[in-house]
Design a protein that fits this description.
- By secondary structure, the protein is α/β, with parallel strands linked by helices.
- It folds into 4 domains: 135 residues, Resolvase, N-terminal catalytic domain (Rossmann fold); 80 residues, no CATH class; 88 residues; 45 residues, no CATH class.
- Helix 8 packs across helix 9 and helix 8 crosses helix 10.
- The N terminus is likely disordered.
């Protein structure tokens, strides 16, 4: 009771006690005072040894000539650093990459991660330029903070210090909600764009900027209609004819260029572009094949046993057809093995192509197709020549010539002056080269004849 009576009443009119001098505090009090003291300067002022400016646009067209979006982002980031005495050590322009990915998965983002050091900061215009996916954006911010790198959002003047500096709860909430809103904005843009495209498609208009190959856009006063492009349709027709005859993509590319066709840029076709066109417009079923992986080199004359168990009648017909195809070429294969010393699948494939023996599918013979045909017919090297003879058999003098090796093909390419992708052209001339070489012709004479 006495202590309660002796307590001094609080007089609200009296001034508050002056702040203590931190130099007079004990070590525990000094550490607590440093942790909980109010900041001496503005809280959202960036601090660092150097600044990396990061700007991003999602489309290559936005970064093209005459577009100022990415330049404006860089200019604004430079403006907010005026008066901070933080030097600019790098400007990173991420052109044509979506924000729905980790920063480390973008080419420029990987370079930024490798270049930024502890004590430096990353400056971006808005959070949606940094990331448009909530989990990815938060993970990237945390990765930078753990490396001792701060993040400064220029448009909001928001400073996110490195790890070890506690974020104010409101600032952390604003950071998370900013990335959530960036993702929401992108999702709304995608939804509205898809709705507009759907409305145009329902009215018979093409909603995209580029027409598919073989077609061109024509504006009817309301929207873009697709009409056939005669020039590109002729190129596609040539691709289909070459493909139906068993030509590969390099051979189809050479045929297009030799026929004088050019792509939309007015230059010669490249193999990669022709391969994409084949997959899209010439071989539509190619995109429906499941999975990719290493194919087995084992001969499979009887097909897949699991499918055979499920549908015996259908698979039985396929097996019987394979056996009939194999028996058709079995005498030729036996003759080449016994009389022409073809003791490998590669030599047999070259011999069958040299003799122009038709394959079941109308293409060329390959070691795998020869192996499958021999397995279907029950023919093997050991059964015809014996185990020892099959290993020791040497090519006969009058046999079918062996496949030209790499050095010979290189010499022919050099003498023919074949540039670019000459392997397909040399392979087309292989029968003539083998025919003349088998009769003692030299490389110089072959080149003079074929040129």
């Amino acid at each position: 009771m006495s202590s309660r009576r002796n307590r001094r009443p609080v007089n609200p009119s009296q001034p508050a006690a002056l702040a203590v001098d931190p130099e007079t505090l004990s070590p525990p009090m000094r550490r607590a005072w440093e942790r909980y003291r109010e900041p001496d300067a503005i809280q959202h002022r960036p601090q660092g040894d150097g600044a990396h400016l990061y700007a991003r646009v999602s489309d290559d067209d936005q970064a093209g000539p005459g577009r100022t979006s990415i330049d404006e982002q860089i200019r604004f980031c430079e403006k907010v650093l005026v008066g901070t005495e933080i030097p600019i050590v790098g400007r990173w322009r991420d052109e044509g990459h979506t924000g729905v990915s980790r920063l480390s998965e973008r080419p420029i983002g990987r370079q930024l991660f490798a270049a930024v050091k502890s004590g430096e900061i990353v400056v971006c215009y808005r959070l949606d330029r940094f990331s448009r996916k909530t989990p990815f954006g938060l993970a990237d911010v945390d990765a930078l903070r753990q490396r001792g790198v701060g993040l400064f959002i220029a448009a909001d003047h928001r400073w996110i210090p490195p790890a070890g500096n506690d974020l104010d709860p409101i600032d952390e909430f604003n950071l998370q909600q900013g990335i959530v809103l960036a993702q929401l904005e992108r999702d709304l843009i995608v939804s509205r764009t898809n709705a507009g495209r759907r409305a145009l498609l329902q009215r018979g208009y093409w909603p995209w900027a580029a027409a598919p190959y073989g077609w061109k856009r024509v504006h009817d006063g309301i929207g873009w209609k697709l009409v056939e492009d005669d020039y590109e349709q002729k190129a596609l027709a040539l691709m289909r004819r070459c493909y139906q005859r068993g030509a590969s993509a390099p051979k189809i590319t050479a045929a297009l260029n030799e026929a004088g066709f050019r792509n939309r840029r007015g230059v010669r076709f490249e193999y990669s572009a022709v391969y994409v066109l084949l997959r899209k417009y010439v071989i539509p079923e190619a995109g429906t094949k499941s999975g990719a992986g290493t194919r087995s080199t084992r001969a499979k004359p009887n097909g897949n046993p699991a499918i055979g168990a499920a549908s015996s009648s259908g698979v039985s017909a396929v097996v019987q057809q394979k056996i009939r195809d194999a028996e058709r070429v079995q005498p030729i294969i036996r003759n080449q093995i016994l009389n022409r010393a073809c003791t490998s699948y590669r030599k047999l494939a070259d011999a069958l192509n040299y003799l122009e023996v038709e394959t079941p599918r109308g293409g060329n013979w390959y070691p795998s197709s020869v192996r499958n045909a021999m397995a279907a017919a029950g023919v093997s090297f050991a059964s015809l020549l014996g185990a020892t003879a099959a290993r020791n058999q040497k090519p006969a003098v009058e046999g079918v010539p062996v496949r030209p090796n790499r050095s010979e093909r290189h010499a022919v390419r050099h003498l023919y002056q074949l540039h670019g992708n000459p392997r397909g052209r040399v392979q087309r001339a292989t029968p003539d080269i083998l025919f003349m070489r088998d009769r003692g012709a030299t490389i110089d004479s072959i080149a003079r004849v074929l040129v």
